[in-house]
Amino acid sequence: MKDKLIRATAKDGMVRIIAAQTRDLVNEGSRIHGCTPTAAAALGRLLTAGVLMGSTLKSEKEVITLQMKGGGPAKGVTVTAYSDGSVKGYIGNPNVNLPLNVANGKLNVGEAIGKDGMLTVIKDQGLREPYVGQVPIYSGEVAEDLAYYYTMSEQVPTAVALGVLVDTDLSIKAAGGYIIQLMPGADELLGDLLTYRLEETKSVTTMLSEGKTIENIIEEIFDGMDLKIYNEEITPEYKCDCSREKVEKVFISIGKKDLEEIYNEGKEEEIKCNFCGTGYKFTNEQIGELLKNL
Ligand SMILES: [Zn+2]
């Protein structure tokens, strides 16, 4: 099953749905960073959230960044997504390894991320000031935190599900999720019905590993509720857009003094991209050139 994103509405547009199956892109992110299962689940859930939220951006120029820093041993997770379905991310500590959550037998993402900190959502729309929304981390499990974010900052009742199932060989067996929002003016009973349906629904990863597609899952949840699925051509993908030029800017930003020091000591420098691990080498001569152009 290839990665896929769908958008849908139900009940005459009163319910809005974005859903995605994201196994391949989570697998790629996990492979690049050499994640343990706990780290893969934490990064994978946030990557999936990024893809879902990225698809709500209005233009190619817009970028959304999600950041969870909760003081846990994962040491922060950051994801950046675009409107075309591309997403990239990194986790502070890809080696974080915790025992399974006793309560539900799942990978312990909540403890890895930690509850002592903030979930930050940054929407850069190419204007001078980006939009920054922030809420305290509620559980560290990612989906609950995003639902809390939507409720607090956008006052829209929102249900979020995100799941990553890691196989014994560390590859990703299934990954996906959805965001379901109730529009203003919707009947209260509709909210109750949805809450009930979602409680009765199996987890996304369980259904995906049973061979269901993301459409099947949404069709099941919204059975008999006037569901309309819009098939848009968004293919979610793990993609890094780093370049030597961008890395150069970051390198220069350490300041003239530090650059001079590196240069005068005759050193070379390799700078690795946080998101994809690509190394950019700067010879001593090239560092000299950068200094000259400052
Ligand atoms: Zn990169």
Structure report:
It is a single chain. The chain is α+β, with helices and mostly antiparallel strands and 294 residues long. Helices cover 34% and strands 27% of the residues. The protein has helices at residues 23-33, 37-54, 109-113, 143-153, 188-200, 204-209, 214-221, 244-252, 256-264, 284-292; strands spanning 4-10, 15-21, 63-69, 77-82, 86-91, 118-124, 131-136, 158-166, 172-182, 228-230, 237-238, 269-272, 279-282. α1 packs across α2 (37-54) and α9 runs antiparallel to α10. The N and C termini lie far apart (49 Å). The protein binds zinc ion.
Please give a handful of descriptors for the protein shown.
294 residues; alpha+beta; five-stranded antiparallel sheet; 13 strands; 34% helix; binds zinc ion
- Largest sheet, strands/sense/barrel: 6 strands, mixed
In one word, what is the shape?
globular
Strand content: 25-35%
Bound molecules: zinc ion
Order of helices and strands, N to C?
A: EEHHEEEHEEHEEHHHEEHHEEH
Order of strands across the main sheet: 7-6-3-4-5-11
> What is the radius of gyration computed over CA atoms, rounded to a whole number of angstroms?
21 Å
Number of strands: 13
The share of residues in helices is 25-40%
Low-confidence stretches: none
What is the SS-derived class?
Answer: alpha+beta
C-alpha end-to-end distance: 49 Å
Total helical elements: 10
Let me know the average pLDDT.
94
Task: Describe this structure in a few short sentences.
The chain has 10 helices and 13 strands. It has helices spanning 23-33, 37-54, 109-113, 143-153, 188-200, 204-209, 214-221, 244-252, 256-264, 284-292; strands at residues 4-10, 15-21, 63-69, 77-82, 86-91, 118-124, 131-136, 158-166, 172-182, 228-230, 237-238, 269-272, 279-282. The chain is globular, with a radius of gyration of 21 Å.
